[in-house]
Amino acid sequence: MTWLWDFGDKAESKEKTPTYFYKKPGKYTVKLTVKIPGVDPKNVPKSNELEIEVSPVTAVIMAEKLKIKVGDEIQFSSEIKGPKGTTYSWGFGDEAKGSTEGSPKRQFKKASPVGKPFKVQLGVKNPNININEKILSNVLLVEVVGMEPPPPVTGYFIGQDIPFVNPKTNPDTPKYTYKWKFNDGVKEGYTVTHRYLTPGRKRYSLEMYIDGDLSSSGDGYVDILPIAVDPSANGKKELTVLRGIDEVEFSANTKGPPGMSWSWDFAGGAPTSTNENPKVTFEKHSTAGNPYEVVLTVTVPNITNAIISKPILVTVNQKFIKPAIGSITIDRSEIGTDGNYTAKIIVEATGTYTSLQLKVDGDPISGITPSSPQSMGKAKGGKHTFTITVPEPPTSVTKAPVAEKLKVTATIFPDDPDDEKKATGYAKTETLNLTLIPKKPWWLLYVYILAGCILLAIIITLVVLAKRPVIPGTITLNGADHYLTSSPLGPKKGKLEIDLGNLDSDYDGFVMTVTAEKRSNSTQLRINSAINSKNGAEGEVAANSEYFDFGRGFPCVEVMTIEWPHEERGRLSLIYDTHQSDSYDYGDDQDDDTYEY
């Protein structure tokens, strides 16, 4: 017997029970023809026809989001209609390796070009069809936004360290690294500093790497400002002043980074200055037709060459005014309280002059040397200040003030070559009163120290003598010893109340009072005791078998056994050992009468 299967797509099989895979979808009619040897085919019954509908393999993909930042992940999923064993092949459009998972999670490490999102598509393959053709899914357009570009940087000067800060939206984790590319080098870090040595707009780029792979980049720029140096004198570039009279205010008018320094050269007409805006009075006149060329030199941090300004032209004319000495005063009329014996003599002068000198004589102290002569340019507001040092007066235990009279002579020398007193100068003398506070002698400190030591020894002796025991002995409760101590309450006697409940809870509610008094002509103490009930209960105690009411004192000698009854705790008992003596010599006699408590 033979079989012939017709699958409706021109394919046949002679197997009895074949397995067949259709390569194309559609509707097919399956027929079976059976042949039996020796039997007329007409007599062989025909089989029924089988209608089969073959569906195509389909693939649909989805994503949780279609716009992300570079470095983020997207979860993709797929719905596949096809036979078992269908294989997957994902393409993500970013030139990176695809995936063969059914629902992959994908991290995009590179940004998609602007206006050109990545195309994500899934290809599936039927395992039963031996062809390379893949069935493609729908296409998803995924926009991967790159890192935020750095913002423009402005307001910095040449030579200044500029902080380049990454936008906060760009992650700052070890997984992400950044490279800053400048025209003169590359620096790595989330934030970096860089400086430029020439002005103008400078462009740079910032690159972000994820796990070492370049993901995206952005361009930025920084505007570098030049150093501005535009000095002036009284707001002008040229001016004329009088020698020794007119004060000129110079202004640097500089714009630059912190840390700049200034150096003014006044071409010999005045001392140099490192102030930004100095005030100068020219002491020398300029020659006719040759004004002073004042130049400012500015030094900028991190810039090798200093910036030199264009010169300011200052013409200094001569004008002679007959000089004169005004007042002569002293700033402090009493010195020496702090051990410093320097004073300042203030001399007021007018006119024009070459120098002013000072001579000082003292009475009764002599040998006073003033500071060096001063030129007219040293005056501030027309006043010269001279510092003098006065010899120290003899030391004094009482630091009695010493009255000093200073004979001060100021001499001023005119600068007019035709002045008749150009050589001798104009002089003025004043007598100034000065009080000197002498120092104490050096040995006085040791006297103070010795007196303090003696006083301390006396105090210690008195304290030691005062701290002697007054209330003596020990109390024993239920086998536990409790030592009695107290500070002296009087020269010869004292009193101590003991709350027995604080020593042993069985004795709560009872107080023992001990009174001690010094016996005359003896080192022994007269001691009395009493037992009191805190709640006012009545009763009696047996002290060495002799009975006394609560609160009544009884004498104590040697070792005392004291007992009394209690309703709840039975018979309470304590032992009081009185052994203690007071060997202090009181220096008087006292009657040996019985101490009444």
Polypeptide structure, described:
With 597 residues, this protein is mainly beta. The protein folds into six domains: 2-54, no CATH class; 58-145, Sandwich (Immunoglobulin-like), CATH 2.60.40; 153-225, Immunoglobulins (Immunoglobulin-like), CATH 2.60.40.10; 228-317, Immunoglobulin-like; 324-436, Immunoglobulin-like (Sandwich); 474-577, no CATH class. 5% of the residues lie in helices and 46% in strands. The chain contains two helices and 46 strands. The strands form twelve sheets. It has a six-stranded antiparallel beta sheet, with no helix packed on it. A five-stranded mixed beta sheet has the order 12-18-17-14-15, with no helix packed on it. Strand 42 and strand 43 form a beta hairpin. The radius of gyration is 58 Å and the shape is flat. It starts with a strand and ends in a 20-residue tail after the last strand. The relative contact order is 0.06.
Q: Topology, please?
A:
Blueprint: E1 2-6, E2 12-13, E3 26-35, E4 50-54, E5 58-63, E6 67-69, E7 73-81, E8 87-91, E9 105-107, E10 118-125, E11 135-145, E12 153-157, E13 162-164, E14 176-182, E15 185-188, E16 192-194, E17 200-210, E18 213-225, E19 228-229, E20 232-233, E21 238-242, E22 247-251, E23 254-255, E24 261-265, E25 279-281, E26 292-299, E27 307-308, E28 312-317, E29 324-330, E30 334-335, E31 342-350, E32 353-363, E33 374-375, E34 383-389, E35 402-414, E36 426-436, H1 444-466, E37 474-477, E38 480-483, E39 493-499, H2 500-503, E40 510-518, E41 525-533, E42 540-543, E43 546-549, E44 554-556, E45 559-566, E46 570-577
